[in-house]
Sequence to fold (464 residues):
Amino acid sequence: MYQAAKQLAAQRAVELVSHGMCVGLGTGSTAALFIEELGKAIASGALTDITGVPTSIDSQRLATQHGIPLADLSNGFYCDLTIDGADEIDPQLELIKGLGGALLREKVVAQNSRRVVIIADASKRVARLGTKSPLPVEVLPFARGVVEKHFAQQGLRPKPRLKPDGRILHTDNGNIILDCSIDHVTDIRQLAKDVTGRAGVVGHGLFIGLADLAIIADLGGQVELLSRMSCG
Amino acid sequence: MYQAAKQLAAQRAVELVSHGMCVGLGTGSTAALFIEELGKAIASGALTDITGVPTSIDSQRLATQHGIPLADLSNGFYCDLTIDGADEIDPQLELIKGLGGALLREKVVAQNSRRVVIIADASKRVARLGTKSPLPVEVLPFARGVVEKHFAQQGLRPKPRLKPDGRILHTDNGNIILDCSIDHVTDIRQLAKDVTGRAGVVGHGLFIGLADLAIIADLGGQVELLSRMSCG
Fold:
């Protein structure tokens, strides 16, 4: 039902892209719409000399389908702009991401971008992170048992993410994801540090201080901009 | 030339194992000698009801060859004792590990052990970490370029680890290793935090506060014990 709102946010994001930019390409349903729109703008000649940095195998495939030239990552990269979705956005522009399973690459790209813009429908706004979404934590398969036990002791109720067929999902990096409940956690920054410090954890979906702007569209066609400069 | 010293340290370590223990099995040439010695003690009946937790595919294979029953890790594990080698040991019992390429699993096992004992020959003692060994940092293949560039800017002179045939080495987890020069770094703890916080880094070889005891044997057959309690 949020398709039109996602589409609107994606279209607005394309307006931020200029000729010659290296653009980080997010993962997920809203980011996919952006990739399509970007492809159209390239095909029509409205944008030229664009290179994309995909954040997942899915976004790589989609970008290729839509004729977006991809950057060679072997010597490092730096994106002028990254456009990505989010699962939750709080009033301070902090995010939960990674329900699409690509959180590690998404964070690498965001950390290596001059500007990170999040596109989302209004259902992704929350007063507090963890209200609707679990926190995805990417874990080495070898460490699954110990990390799961540790998180359970911390009250995070970890659940291994499954594929539709009921088997354990593996990420593009061959790891598993533990979805954790963090709705009771008051200090999100401390939580991010604690989770990062645990051996066997290779990444988590808290994106703290990374987004610069969110373009949030609602069902009525209204677009709200939330920028880091203006948020409280 | 240190073979006899390594052997001596490994034999001493076996004396720390008791019936019924769950034992973390390190990776590398010295840890391999311990696995052999432990296997002998089990075969002779000197030790019973031992389960091992291997820190790499290599140590798993070796443990199986030497008849050490392995723990089922799926529900988590907790080792009574872990015996592992190290590449460098400083006077505070902080370590560089991971030249064997198994640093992530080694750290997971160490963090989930009641007691961690390091066995080494005397050549591994250094006044300051990074003197002889590089710091191995395990990195997502996707992020290699950006992380390499970042570390180079920090003066860490990262070098991708190669296999003997000259191609890039991949770890058991499918990642690559950047060997970094840290001999000029004065604040090792801060370095560990900085490296950990970089997206794309999945682990590093600094083992801070993890070892409880080091058994260090020299060429003359002398054994020195360095324990966390006693170090300055």
Remarks:
- The radius of gyration of chain A is 17 Å.
